[in-house]
Amino acid sequence: IFGNIQYRRMDAGNECSEDDLIALLGILNSSLASDIIMLQGQKSQRKLFPKIVNEDIKNFPIPKNWKKAVSVLVPLVKQVLDSHEDEMRQKAEKLVNLRVQDIYMKA
């Protein structure tokens, strides 16, 4: 589905900063991530009780340009987390979704 786009894995042995985790939170909660998991997930394609298993997350594609993704996504994800009004949160979520799509398409 992703053709020649380069991705990497986040290995358990690597240290993750708080910003790494915040960016990953934004990616995993994006509409693109939902689409990826629905298409590639082991048990997410089932009609009855679809679910995400650990292997789906372990094999989730992480963009090669990770540092740039972190710098772009962290402020937006923090804006979502800090939003107290529904309208502001929804706007921030849309921006996160757009940026995630941009990051994956430019990877």
Task: Provide structural commentary.
This protein is mostly helical and 107 residues long. The protein has five helices and two strands. The chain has helices at 18-28, 31-40, 54-58, 66-82, 86-105; strands at 7-8, 62-63. Helix 1 crosses helix 4 (66-82) and helix 4 runs antiparallel to helix 5. The two termini are 14 Å apart. Mean pLDDT is 84; it is low at 1-6.
SSE blueprint:
Layout: E1 7-8, H1 18-28, H2 31-40, H3 54-58, E2 62-63, H4 66-82, H5 86-105
Antiparallel strand pairs: 1-2
Helix pairs in contact: 1-4, 4-5
Gist?
This protein has about 110 residues and is mainly alpha-helical.
What descriptors fit this protein?
two-stranded antiparallel ribbon, 107 residues, globular, mainly alpha
How would you state the average pLDDT, rounded?
A: 84
State the major sheet: 2 strands, antiparallel
Sketch the topology as an H/E string, one letter per element: EHHHEHH
How would the global form be characterised? globular
Number of helices: 5
Query: Rg from C-alpha positions?
Result: 14 Å
Number of strands: 2
Strand order of the largest sheet: 1-2
In the predicted model, the low-confidence regions spanning at least 5 consecutive residues are 1-6
Helix-strand category: mainly alpha
N-to-C CA distance: 14 Å
Estimate the strand proportion. Answer: under 5%
